Amino acid sequence: MSLPLQGQVALVTGAAKRLGRAVALRLAEEGADVVIHHRASGPEATQVASEMEKLGRQTLIVAADLQNIAEIRRLIEETEKKFGRLNILVNSAANFIHTDFSATTEEIWDASLDTNLKAPYFCSQAAAPLLKSAGGVVINFADIGGIQPWPGYLPYCISKAGVILLTRALAKVLAPEVRVNAIAPGTITMEGDAPEVESEYIRRAPLGRSGRPGDVADTVSFLLRATFMTGQVLILDGGRTL
Fold it and tell me: How much is the pLDDT for 204?
């Protein structure tokens, strides 16, 4: 059976857990060899790699602190050393820090903006030469919080609003060789989430259900194939933002 991503190399940041893991596994199922980035989730990254290798994929696990630009550059260098190319960059690594406006510290602000906005900017910068050579694709992870801000998560929401504009800007800067789009998930639940969280999401979503990691992976797959789409942000929230 022909696999749509056979022969391609994908780098997924934050690939050891949650949505990053789901996306990385989907790319492997569709034929891509995958660079599994994590910061401090070694056992989980090893488990993901094992699942991919059972599919016949090649993998590379790289631990890196994406708040550090030198670490980002090392991540891309190790990718090139292993595979010699890069077709797909998925910037999914993020943190989600609760803080009230009056209690926000410089450390919380920096942690939010550095991980959620600075990292995808500099990952894209470092990967740009490889992506241009391959006619590649960048997919960023925004959030509906970047469209409808939540008072208890203002630095997070500001960082994700920045990702939305970053996506549009990179789509111009990297065109025509590289397409850049983003997903803004909302009302997505995962295994282990509290039942009351899912109930609340269902109440808020006109479609009457919460989203699942597979819905996010489906959207990534679509964006990889939407060859006349760039600079767009797809809201994936079951209609919550309506």
Answer: 86
Q: Is 154 left (phi over 0), alpha (psi -120 to 50) or beta?
A: alpha
- The full set of domain ranges for the chain reads 9-235
Q: Across-strand partners of 11? A: 35, 89
**Residue 191 binned pLDDT confidence (cut-offs 50, 70, 90):** confident
pLDDT digits 0-9 by tens, 5-56: 999 999 999 999 999 999 999 999 999 999 999 999 999 999 999 999 999 9
Indicate the pTM of the whole model. 0.96
CATH 3.30.365.10 is held by the domain 9-235: no
Catalytically active residues, by annotation: 156
SS3 sequence, the chain? CCCCCCCCEEEECCCCCHHHHHHHHHHHHCCCEEEEEECCCHHHHHHHHHHHHHCCCCEEEEECCCCCHHHHHHHHHHHHHHHCCCCEEEECCCCCCCECHHHCCHHHHHHHHHHHHHHHHHHHHHHHHHHHHHCCEEEEECCHHHCCCCCCEHHHHHHHHHHHHHHHHHHHHCCCCCEEEEEEECCECCCCCCHHHHHHHHHHCCCCCCECHHHHHHHHHHHHHCCCCCCCEEEECCCCCC
Q: pLDDT tens across 122-139, in order?
A: 999 999 999 999 999 999
